[in-house]
Write a structure and sequence with these properties.
Structural class of chain A: alpha+beta
Number of domains of chain A: 2
CATH architecture of the largest domain in chain A: Box
Shape of chain A: elongated
Number of helices of chain A: 4
Helix content of chain A: 10-25%
Largest sheet of chain A: 9 strands, antiparallel
Family (chains A, B, C): Belongs to the PCNA family.
Protein name (chains A, B, C): DNA polymerase sliding clamp
Largest interface: A-B, 11 and 15 residues
CATH topology of the largest domain in chain A: Proliferating Cell Nuclear Antigen
Subunit structure (chains A, B, C): Homotrimer. The subunits circularize to form a toroid; DNA passes through its center. Replication factor C (RFC) is required to load the toroid on the DNA.
Order of helices and strands of chain A: EHEEEEEHEEEEHEEEEEHEEE
Strand order of the largest sheet of chain A: 6-2-3-4-18-17-16-10-14
CATH class of the largest domain in chain A: Alpha Beta
GO biological process, one term (chains A, B, C): regulation of DNA replication
Keywords (chains A, B, C): DNA replication, DNA-binding
Oligomer: homotrimer
Chain lengths: 247, 247, 247
């Protein structure tokens, strides 16, 4: 059983954070809210999303799960005007999701969850450095790095208490330093890893520019990015595996 | 003889309603205003436009006709800023249309009307159902249907006094119901027909979202859509032939 | 030695006027400001730009020159928000330009000036007609001409004290006349020349629509276009060679 009403903005933002990595996913219809975990086909990027029942206007669920095509679901939600409500109701017999937006009813065929790539276990890493930064600074770093390279290094300079971003191109380089006055918070620790810019660009699209992002970093380790959506009633964690250093 | 001054907005809107279906058309320069009738190459969609002399700042004509390439004429009118006036003058000898916009003179070569697809006779059908709806609801229905299918069914539910739109895709369906509280007016009658979405999408582009549209409908019959342009001093009628039901 | 701080808007506008014609250029780092002269590969269009030291927040230079790839430099400057400052510093040893924008450092590899197409001598022509016009009228003329032709004629009608623009297409023609009431200033003289529209379209992109443009014209002679940027602290001159009249 699943029957919920939610603002189109909230649902759309939550789905966008997952569709940055995958086209299909399994949604867990838990009693306390929706939960999605997914990993991209190359096993490089993972997402863990939860959208609490309190983020909904009304929410009833009893623990099932459904498989969805994200772009079809997002397009449907995108039919709503800003601020309009979306009514979701699962028809258990036909395995279809009924989506109602002000008189418009969309019937979405679901996908068998067993046919979707298996949900990842997101490892519990104890990463030594912790950086809290505004979303717009992630955006700036990703855009600048993209001008010169396909890779981006994220690191912490413990001596100078700096978070830095490096991208080295064939001819040009980009370097961004954010010190404690630029950062919201910094727990220094040994950290320097290289990442694929393609993944960070996709993740960046889902990061709210006016929100806080917490990065957990280590040396040649994955990065974890945490941020809130839906005014704190939803949580997104991305994990991105490092590239082997090219130099 | 043809010599007229009209706001670029009014003329542009009028031409857009015709170019939704055809690239070339014959314009009748009647004493009481412009009139255009056209049918698309597949004989599926027809348009009947009249733009009254009162919609013009000044208007003089004596009943001739000219053939025009619509996109060239629209591009020229599009050179004007919002609210600017367009001066149209026919040179009978050279068979060219002189278009003046604030010091800019465009000379448009005309097309021999006899070389343009013949103007249709738009049949006078006595359709049983009549629905008056806001343009934005047509827009919403067309966009939603387009997400799942190439076809759209329009119909009236006489029992519940509803106008409905149905689109059935391979996996997903869309259904929109507008009852008497959503509609401007409804004259119920037996009505259900399937139409090609491509045509309705093109027609929809010309329908003002904040205006009224009257639909005349029957069972397996064409639909007629009527709406006003130019603050009531222009009238557009579209007629769209039904598709044979696929089920 | 070169070390300067300038608003991103000012630097971006200056570079755009040169990149309209060439992809690489030599920038002269003069004591009193930057200077660039360049000619397109076909030797048809030339640009002469100066950006005075007073247009900078701070400016120090001692007369060297650097070769740059314009699109890479423009992309970097485009990373700045409106009103942000760009800090430029030349590293003489590595021959790299360090570009800093609020914590972001971009290292741009320079090009050997000797490998860049030689800078033109812009001839000192004594052209008989002089027209001062608003930038938006150039824009309007270029857009209208582009609808019908690849060429555009610019001329002065001495008898009627008019500046005119003519474009003749295969079927349609465009004619624009600006008389003394439309122009900011006019010094009539014998002037009529045909130009390639492609070049004028590129130059037009760099012309501020709300600024003044001075055109110097003759009969079958190049046109010179002068306008100011950076609130009068930068000057751009374009020279465009005429096409041989086709009729």
């Amino acid at each position: 059983m699943f029957n919920a009403i939610v603002s189109a903005d909230t649902l759309g933002t939550a789905l966008d954070s997952v569709s940055a990595l995958v086209e299909e996913c399994t949604i867990h219809l838990n009693e306390d809210g929706l939960a999605i975990r997914a990993v991209d086909p190359a096993n490089v990027g993972m997402v863990d999303l939860s959208l609490d029942a309190t983020a909904f206007e009304s929410y009833e669920a009893d623990g099932g799960r459904i498989g969805v095509n994200l772009s079809r679901l997002e397009d449907t939600v995108g039919m709503a005007d800003a601020g309009q409500l979306v009514h979701l109701e699962l028809d258990e017999e036909t395995r279809k999701l009924h989506i109602q937006i002000d008189g418009l009813e969309y019937t979405l065929a679901l996908i068998d969850p067993d046919s979707i790539r298996q949900e990842p276990d997101i490892p519990d890493l104890d990463l030594p450095a912790n950086v809290v930064v505004e979303g717009r600074d992630i955006n700036r770093a990703v855009k600048a790095a993209d001008m010169v390279s396909d890779h981006i290094a994220l690191g912490v300079d413990e001596a100078d208490s700096l978070f830095y971003v490096d991208a080295e191109g064939d001819t040009d380089d980009v370097h961004l330093e954010l010190d404690e006055s630029d950062l919201i918070d910094l727990t220094p620790g040994p950290a320097h890893s290289l990442f694929s810019l393609d993944y960070l660009k996709d993740m960046n699209k889902a990061i709210p520019s006016d929100g806080e992002v917490t990065l957990e970093l280590g040396e040649e380790f994955p990065v974890k990015l945490h941020f809130e959506i839906a005014e704190g009633e939803g949580q997104v964690t991305y994990m991105l595996a490092p590239r082997i250093q090219s130099d």
